[in-house]
Structures are given as structure tokens and as C-alpha cells.
Amino acid sequence: MAIYNIHAGHNTIVPGANGKFNEVTEDRKVKDTVISKLQSLGYTVYDCTDDSGKTQNENLKNIVSKCNDHTVDLDVSIHFNASDGQGHGVEVLQYSDKTQAIAQNICNAIAQLGFKNRGVKERKDLYVLKHTKAPAILIECCFCDSAIDAGLYNCETMASAIVKGLTGVDVNENKIKIAYAGHVQDIGWTTPVIDGETCGSVGKAKRLEAIQVDTRHSNLDMFAKAHIANVGWKDYGKINNNTVIGTVGQSKALECLCLNCTNANIVYRVHQANIGWSSWTKADGISTLGSVGQSLQLEAIEIKVL
Predict the structure, then answer these.
(1) pTM of the prediction?
(2) CB-based burial of residue 78 (10 Å sphere; 0-12 exposed, 13-18 middle, 19+ buried)?
(3) Residues contacting residue 54 through CB under 8 Å, at least 6 positions apart
């Protein structure tokens, strides 16, 4: 199996780009996640990140020195780009076309997350690419000062895409993306279901009183509003796996939901009394599923990440 050096660019003394998020903070998160995923697949990986260099030149020399301490097949440098908020997308920089195939694979995998594919570019002037003894690539994951890219960026999915580009393995295949449970009339809390499965009941005329959504599987940033019988609308803001959307022990039905996910494409549908299943609808924070003022209870829900 291939052996890798992986490092994050810059450090807190010699900071990188900043904007909607901070390059130094996020490139280390992505680096750590990439290393963890590669190691879980059985690869040998060395972390060559430098946190002590006091100048840009010292930072680069420290990285190269760490890289050259190991005999590896590829050095991978993880960065985020910036361009006054105007640029967006992924690109991979290389010293020569020896790394063309793997660099293109990484570009393509990250672009599949929705980022513009800016392609592979040759750079003979970059210190790390020029001075490591193993072939090296530098991944500009996306633009940290772009509102477009910031809306798409997620550490977990970015790291998974890099690993897929390096190894060809989709580490998210067969992985749970989302889980959720419901509190149902006369039944109580249901066993959590996953990825589009039905939560609640159909054909039993039992109200769905509350739901909990476990956002941890895909590190989802989700927000929720709910219209509750005899209560009205309640805004839950950003939710986590402990958030109870609705009520428990009050015999009040959920009547309408408005979900929003800011870092993944989530769709959901609900089963409503006397109506049946709604259409699949994107969790965009605008669309609502259910009804208000008609005393029609929600009875089931299905949620999935596309």
C-alpha cells in the first residue's frame, strides 16, 4: 500500500488565508480527518505539519525537513485558497505531470461535492513541491473567503473526497448519513431509523408528537421550526441530537415542519392525516411540510441526505 506524508499549510505564527473561515484552523481539521480515514483503511501516514516556524521561510523548511525524514510515495499539502471573495472552487497544484492522475482524481472528487473544478496546475515555484524528495501535490480545497464555497464546505466530506481521490475508496459508502426518532401517540419514542426510512406510523391514525434528529453522522448543520397543535410555531434554531422538536407528554401533534440544512443537501417528506405523503422537499429553511389551521396531524416523516 502507498505511504503518505500529509501536512496542513501555514501555522498560527505565520497565518494563511482568512475570510468566511480561517485557513489554518480548517486545514488542520481536514488534515487530521484525512489521516484518520487513511489509517482506518490500513495506510501508513506521517503528519508533517509545522506549528513552530516563526517566518514563512522557516515554516516551509520545517515542513520539507519533516517530509524528507520519511520514505513515502506522495507528499500531500492541504490548503485553502482566497481571492477577495471573487474566486471559488478546488484546484490541485503539482511540480510535474508525474502526479497528474492522482491530482486530477482529487480535483474531481472534491468537485463532486458541488465545488467548481479549477483543475490541476503546474507550479515550479512552490517551495514544498520543489524540495520534497517524494512527489508532492498541494490541494487548494476551496476558497475560504467565498460565500459560495463556505456554504458548501464541510470538513468531513472534504476529507472523504481527498481520501477517495488518493485511494479510490469511498469511505462514506454504506455509512449512515442521518438518523432520527419520533415520539408517537400511545407508543412513545420509536427506535431511531436512518437514511430515508419511515419514522412514525402510517394507517394507524396516531399523531407524531415530536422528533429528534441525530446530526452527528455527517456533521450536519441543521435548523428547525415546528407548528404544534394549540401552541403555534416554535423556532428551535440550530439543533443537535438532543433537541426535541415538538412536545412529549402533552398530547399535542406536530402539524407542520420547516427544516434547514446549511452544509448538505437534505430532503424530507411527511405523512399527514387525511392527506397522505407529501412530495420530497429540500430542507431549505423556507419550504414547509404539513398544514397550519386545519387541525391535521403529522403521522410520519422520512429524511435523507442526497
Answers:
(1) 0.61
(2) buried
(3) 13, 14
